[in-house]
Amino acid sequence: MSLKAAAERELYERLTQALEKYKGKRGVLIAALQEAQQIFGYLPRKVMIHVANELTIPLSEVYSVVSFYSLFSTMPTGRIRLEVCMGTACYVKGAEELLKGLKEELGVEPGEVTKDGLFSIATTRCVGACSAAPVLKVGEELHGKMTRDRISPLLEELKQR
């Protein structure tokens, strides 16, 4: 067995173990998918099939939840996910310029991952921090009143974590 196959098998074993506590319960799909995404980094079709099989629910239900909620990704993401809020307040206060700065600084477009696998960029709808617009979401952290000149120092800080 190749090293890659062994690593993948280990991830699926971790997922199966994590899903045990959800079996036979109602209303647990979002929590189960969050755990799956935490283990794999994203939710490819094979993982969605595994979740559906383990929880004995239709794949169509799993897919509809994954495609509805923006917190789930079906594409690989960087270890650090950068999301620019494009809600009205953020947009009016410079979110477009912030996004442009991130794209130039990292050399990737929204939905792409940097070559080193460290960062990915995405846009999101309102994050509910309108008074701090424009907002950059880094994982679960919100960085308010972001400006283009604050991008480089923030990225350097994130690389050190």
Structural key phrases:
single chain, 161 residues, alpha+beta, Glutaredoxin, 2 domains, four-stranded mixed β-sheet, 4 strands, 11% strand
Outline the structure in words.
- There is one protein chain.
- With 161 residues, the chain is α+β, with helices and mostly antiparallel strands.
- It folds into two domains: 3-68; 80-160, Glutaredoxin (3-Layer(aba) Sandwich).
- It has seven helices and four strands.
- It has helices spanning 3-19, 29-40, 45-55, 59-68, 88-92, 95-106, 151-160, and strands spanning 80-85, 119-124, 136-138, 141-143.
- It has a four-stranded mixed beta sheet, with helices on one face.
- Helix 1 packs antiparallel against helix 2 and helix 3 packs across helix 4.
- The longest helix is centred in the first third of the chain and has 17 residues, at 3-19.
- The two termini are 34 Å apart.
- The model has no long low-confidence stretch (mean pLDDT 93).
Numbering strands along the chain, what is their spatial order in the largest sheet?
A: 2-1-3-4
**CATH top level label of the largest domain:** Alpha Beta
Query: How do the SSEs run, as a string of H and E?
Result: HHHHEHHEEEH
Q: What is the count of structural domains?
A: 2
Q: Rg from C-alpha positions?
A: 18 Å
Intertermini distance: 34 Å
Structural class: alpha+beta
CATH-defined superfamily of the largest domain: Glutaredoxin
User: Low-confidence parts lasting 5 or more residues at pLDDT below 50?
Assistant: none
Mean pLDDT across all amino acids: 93
